[in-house]
Specification:
With about 300 residues, the protein is α/β, with parallel strands linked by helices. Helix content is about 40%, strand content about 15%. α10 links the parallel β8 and β9. α3 runs parallel beside α4, α9 packs parallel to α10 and α11 packs antiparallel against α12. The N and C termini lie far apart (about 60 Å).
């Protein structure tokens, strides 16, 4: 997620060559998919105005399956012409966040997604859905299953089989995640859910465990914990990729990622960008890194 969610909140311009270099290094870590950019209007998120250049430059990285976030038909057209073969739709769970992010109510914003799906079908491009602030909204508070149900029902009618549930400002808690996923998966058996946890309040890993206990196996993360939503007050980055991989490996959950390479990528991303967004691996390193034993000291005689 670093090249999209990780970069979008950065005020200082990240050179296109730097973005490409980070993507190429991540492609060698064993990670298998990446949301590489977003085809939004350059005035909305200036940092991603080079989306076409970035996508075209990394087409040779066959180790990664790329997808891109698109807000409208224009964005979808740009993404498809650049070589993207999977689109992710942008939608909010609440009207307040939707009006801030898309200048439309949830229903109005979802209505505008249908032409994107039609365009994707013409070009044999896959489409996945998303729901931002799915657990809590910084304007409206806790989000209920009742609020998500009509959105998911509409997604199903559109033919969407994959939906990302995003904890955009880190308001979710493990019990809420477990209970909500249990109910949603029972009601929407044909939908594959993925999770997009932000670590704003330090609960992203705990929330990941709750989602794992409900059988969810797809998680977004961002190298070095970079990122945040420009349209959500107080939003911080996604859970750091290196922290997520470390936690999963410590629990015996195989990810296919090489933790040492992921940490090296996080260090390089921090060096190139100038900071990280909060990463335990960059601060303390993995648990396997032990220190030399302390020899017993001879007691001093009084």
């Amino acid at each position: 997620m670093a090249p999209r969610d990780g970069f979008q909140a950065e005020d200082a311009w990240i050179p296109t060559e730097t973005k490409i270099a980070i993507i190429r290094q991540l492609a060698q870590t064993g990670l298998t998919s990446m949301e590489v950019t977003s085809f939004v209007h350059p005035k909305a998120i200036p940092q991603l105005r080079d989306a076409e250049e970035v996508v075209r430059a990394v087409q040779d990285e066959t180790n990664l399956a790329f997808r891109a976030l698109v807000p409208n038909v224009k964005g979808a057209e740009r993404a498809i012409s650049s070589g993207i073969t999977k689109l992710k739709l942008m939608l909010s769970a609440t009207d307040s966040h939707s009006l801030s992010n898309a200048n439309a109510t949830v229903k109005e914003a979802q209505d505008k997604l249908e032409p994107i799906i039609e365009l994707a079908e013409k070009h044999d491009v896959k489409v996945g859905g998303s729901i931002s602030v799915a657990f809590g909204c910084p304007y409206e508070g806790v989000v209920s299953v009742e609020q998500l149900r009509p959105i998911l029902e509409r997604y199903e009618k559109m033919g969407i089989k994959e939906v990302s549930l995003a904890d955009t400002t880190g308001m979710a808690n493990p019990k809420q995640v477990y209970d909500m996923l249990g109910q949603l998966q029972d009601e929407f058996k044909q939908v594959t859910f993925s999770m997009h946890f932000h670590n704003t309040r330090g609960l992203a890993i705990a929330n990941t465990v709750s989602a794992l206990e409900q059988g969810v196996t797809r998680f977004d993360s961002s190298i070095a914990g970079l990122g945040g939503c420009p349209y959500a007050p107080g939003a911080s980055g996604n859970v750091a990729t290196e922290d997520l991989v470390h936690a999963l490996h410590e629990m015996g959950v195989e990810t296919g990622a090489d933790l040492d390479k992921v940490i090296a990528s996080a260090k390089e991303a921090r060096r190139l960008i100038g900071h990280d967004g909060g990463s335990y691996m960059l601060q303390a390193g993995p648990s396997k890194n032990l220190h030399g034993k302390v020899e017993a000291q001879e007691k001093l005689e009084k």
